[in-house]
Amino acid sequence: MISKPNRSPRGPILPFLLLLLSTADASHVVSGTTARLPMSLSTVIQDLEAEGASYVTTAAFLTSQSVRRSTCSSLLRSLFSISGEGDHDDEVIYGETTAFGKKLDDDDDDEGSDADGGGSGVAIACPSRGEATVSEVSSTVVACGGTVVYVADEVDLGRGEGLFDALGPAVERLLAARAAAESGDGGGGGGTTLKHRPSTLIVVFTGAASAAEIESSRRLFEASAAKMLRSIIQPVAATSHRATKLSDVFDRIEYVSSNEKDVDMQLCPAGGKVGRKNSPSAREPAEVAGSVRTVVEAGLVENVGPMVEMAAKVPVKQACPRLMGNAVDLAAARVLGPLAKTCLEECLSLVRTSCGADGKKVVPEFGSLCDASVSRALRDFDAAASKTKRFQKSPVAKRIRADLLENLHSELSDVYDVQVSALQAAAFDAFRARLNKLRITPNLANDMNDAAKTSLDEFATAAKKLRPSSSASASWTGLSDQIANVRTKFARHNAERLLAARASGQFRPVPRKGVTVGMHWLLPKPFGNDYRQEPWLEHTADDLVFAPVDGVTDVGGGDVRTGDWRKGVVPAPTSGEMMYLK
Description:
- The chain is α/β, with parallel strands linked by helices.
- The chain has helices spanning 3-7, 10-25, 40-50, 69-79, 134-143, 154-159, 167-183, 211-231, 285-298, 305-312, 327-355, 366-385, 395-436, 444-464, 479-504, 557-562, and strands at residues 28-33, 55-63, 99-103, 120-125, 148-152, 200-205, 252-257, 544-547, 569-570, 578-581.
- Helix content is 45%, strand content 9%.
- The strands form two sheets. It has a seven-stranded mixed β-sheet.
- The protein is elongated.
């Protein structure tokens, strides 16, 4: 009786414990980080090593342009089997998490498994589209050894645009880093770790489900990739050949649908299980962390601008791709950088000779001076650059010329602001001198307004000649704003001078004239009823008597004395005659 009750609950407890053990040993997210890429991969690798991972595989999760943010978030979780039930699954949020680590399930039956029981893991970098720069994405792909999980949207596949906004520069940077590693130059960002590190590209099609749809999408993707490889700049070296198809860049390429699960287990370039110890993509945590450190030390923003600035002290305002291994581009940066500096200095020297060291000497034709100086600087630059025909097609040479033109207008805009300030001061002095010549009369306010208008017209005419005719001056301070500022300054000065003159008693405005208001009242019948305006009085019992102007004798003397004759007189508007009723 004692043993039986103790055996009954033991049955369901054992499977539950086995389930817990299997869950603990299954693949699970170890940690996530929001630090900047590719440095954040180092944090994830350290966490995987702390969890006992002896080998780590890295990959970058990228998407094409038309993949929505919500789709990116759901695919990131489904492709890498992040169910949300793990302790750290909530740390993987697309747009916030830049990298996360996942400890893989150890297979004890696998001959290639680690005998020491260390296990393996994957570190996934997930730069957010629109937030991470192209340089950060490219450096992250290099730090991951070229292994990429790429989501291609069906819209981008159909129109052939937006597929390689991030992947194209990453491939270009990856090829340059590999060429630098092969040549022994560690400046490419990959160091020696890229020499024998195979890579995998897994392309996920969002609009394909069946095998036929995947095959159709694959053909479109490879055709677009071939165009991309022809357009990017690839390193020129005797030991390397130009990549014309994706297989020249990646050791293994897989095309899957968006319904695929456990994509992280397919990252092995040899096609086997990525968790195996002898997987070509698996590296020790120290080696992977070294690759990340090498990329970080090479610089996150890879451009030729710092090279030109160090060589020529010319501020480069636009970033252009750093082309490792291209002798023409490097020569263009080395030769044309100092030349751009010389042209810039000569142009500014010519302008400052006319404007003075501080630029406050007003040059009436400053705009024409700027046009001539810029044209001369560009002409000298083009003449020197054209001596080397190889520079004509170099993107670095074109970018240095564009930077030179922008820097010329940027420097001249500062001198232009000083010129306008000096012209405003001169116009205000001329305005005050014109006011001092005015006599204090009752019309002083009108005279001051006329003086302000005349001075403002002179300033506007002179200010137009200070602006160059080139379209680059459109970014300078607007002429209308400058005229408005001077107009406000003149009006304020006039108001102050009038108040001072009125307070001193010297100025008395013209007294205002009185306003006369007249009111007219029309009496319709001032002399009684008009016979012609009363139709119902046409037949009257009285006799109508006509009295001429001088026929006053028709009125009797008695009527005059009593005044009754006025009651019988009615007006005759058509003549001076009068009619009255007898």
